[in-house]
Specification:
Largest sheet: none
Radius of gyration: 20 Å
Number of helices: 11
Helix content: over 70%
Number of strands: 0
Distance between the termini: 72 Å
Strand content: under 5%
């Protein structure tokens, strides 16, 4: 007879996500996570051999969904510019949970070189590889300047995609940007800047 499915693992991950956001990975207590998840520390270790393994499971839960969306929006069914508009618009539509996960990842990458290295390996196999492939296709098609190093093109593409959207969310409509574009409108303008620059 098959064992019944249990919801212990997702409960642990939900509790850990909240504690990690509040206290960071190092500051989060496994005992508190177990209490919040209504389970025991032994069950945490059963599913996650270390606190870092639990952290990466929390990250992966959000990241898998994001990565599936990025694979879809970057599929080669349009011009490079159209594909990057879809990418930037998807970033503009990031949920609050996804933004919180990005903040958590950024904080932990700054605090722990071991976590940073493991995150870098995962992201290189994930969204970084997808975007780099798209950039290289853009070079091949003549949409990007082939004299530019691919890493420069990758960094420019990424830098205009995510940080401006986060900054726009943080400042909202407060001065000095009371009527600045936001969301998908901002995404489209940023892609235009990527391809056409800001010079007059």
């Amino acid at each position: 007879m098959a064992r019944p499915r249990t919801d212990i693992r997702p409960r642990i991950q939900r509790a850990a996500r909240q504690r990690f956001r509040e206290n960071g990975v190092d500051g989060a207590s496994l005992r508190a996570i177990a209490r919040d998840a209504k389970t025991s520390i032994d069950m945490i270790y059963y599913y996650f051999p270390s606190k870092d393994d639990l952290f990466f499971a929390v990250v992966e839960e959000s990241y898998e969904k994001i990565l599936a969306d990025l694979e879809r929006v970057l599929a080669p069914d349009g011009t490079i510019e159209e594909r990057l508009v879809r990418l930037y618009e998807r970033i503009a539509d990031a949920s609050d949970e996804e933004v919180e996960t990005v903040r958590l990842v950024a904080r932990e990458a700054l605090l722990s070189s071991a976590r940073r290295d493991r995150l870098a390996q995962r992201f290189t196999r994930g969204h970084v590889g997808l975007i780099l492939r798209t950039v290289m296709e853009g070079v091949k098609e003549g949409a990007f300047d082939s004299k530019r190093h691919p890493v420069v093109l990758l960094l420019a593409t990424f830098s205009l995609a995510f940080p401006p959207q986060i900054l726009r969310r943080l400042i909202g409509d407060r001065r000095p940007l009371p009527s600045a574009p936001a969301g998908k409108a901002l995404a489209r303008e940023l892609v235009d800047v990527l391809f056409r620059g800001v010079g007059a």
